[in-house]
Sequence to fold (449 residues):
Amino acid sequence: MSVLRPLDKLPGLNMATILLVGVEDALLQQLADSMLKEDCASEMRVHLAKSLPLPSNVNRPRIDLVVFVINLHSKYSLQNVEKSLCHLDAGFFLGKVCFLATGAGQDSHCSIHRNTVRKLAHTYRSPLLFCDLEVDGFRASMAQRLVRMLQICAGHVPGVSALNLLSLLRSPESPPLEEL
Amino acid sequence: MNQQGLDPGSTTDMEVVTDIEEELIKACEEMWKDMEECQNKLSLIGAETLSNSNAQLSLLIMQVKCLTAELSQWHKETPEITPLTEDVLITLGKEEFQKLSHDLEMVLSTIQSKNENLKEELEREQQWLDEQQEIMKSLNVIYSELKKQVVTFSESRIFNELKTKILYIKEFKEKLLITLGEFLEDHFPLPNGTLKKKKKNIQEATKQLITLHEVLEILINRLFDVPHDPYVKISDSFWPPYIELLLRNGIALRHPEDPTRIRLEAFHQ
Fold:
């Protein structure tokens, strides 16, 4: 059982790599396309995976940011993410992981409560973003946001580390989370 | 003086630049070596996965450690600034000026094109204005001519015209009246001598008869003088056949209650 670790390889020149994990291939592909359309000073790579662990026999660049995409309409997608989390090194949770919940817009279709996802993100001390990836405009802005995060996580923004960003992202959410 | 000072300097400039480049490359290589060392150290550390139960606490501890480490790193580090030597300043200034001049050139070209557009527009407007002024002039000429004509019209000509028209109409009316009178005399004469001879006694006993012309005149005058009561009493001087003629042809009407009175049909209404 291979565990994905941060900083396991030397970085490529000006290269930033993001890994999107989720069961819905089509949504991940659309999100990846939107991200690649964004303006980015770094050379960006987007990798898609259904679940972790990743096959160990492939030569892949250093992963700078892992995004777990959870579809609130399917319990399976949550279970898949929970299983995948066991194959990630603890070092990733220092700002290089984020959860992305999609489908919250259609409340009647949701089979997972939003608080369940909130608890999960809180347990792993990682930011949780909500976005309906099926809406083009929302997806584009989320892609932009992820690109910015990726640049920071890859260390391409001077003076800001992934951990810095994590502490900035989480602070306003803290009070309600304690109440859960 | 400055020129002489700069010329010998330019040869040393090149040396300085290459020196700086070499220094930078050296620094980069050292950094890369450091990174490789760190990477080796990192790879020695075993992976650690989290379970749901222990995740929060261990992550918080890790975060504290890392944040403290980052903090102390920031404290230790003194920000390096590029040495403000003359060469660096000159290069930076050159870049800045080139950017500025490029921007200014863009501004200049846009303003020039705008200027040209405005000039063309001005010409067009000027031409239009000239045309309008020409039109104004000719209109003014026409206006003053018309004004003169209007004065003569109003004072003499129209007056004369109206006068002649009135005269003409008056004449026409006279003619019409005379013609109508003649027509009546010709076609509707009073009963002549033959009748007189046969009924001499009756005629002499009755009043002198009046012509149809006169009857009509009486009826017309009554209609216009007393419009609210246009009826005329049938007197003996009206010849009964003519009255019958007028009534039958709808020229005169009998009073609905008094058969001895008649009026002229109101043709004018």
Q: What stands out?
A: Chain B has seven helices and three strands. Confidence is low (pLDDT under 50) at residues 1-9, 196-200 of chain B. The longest strand of chain B covers residues 261-264. The radius of gyration of chain B is 64 Å.
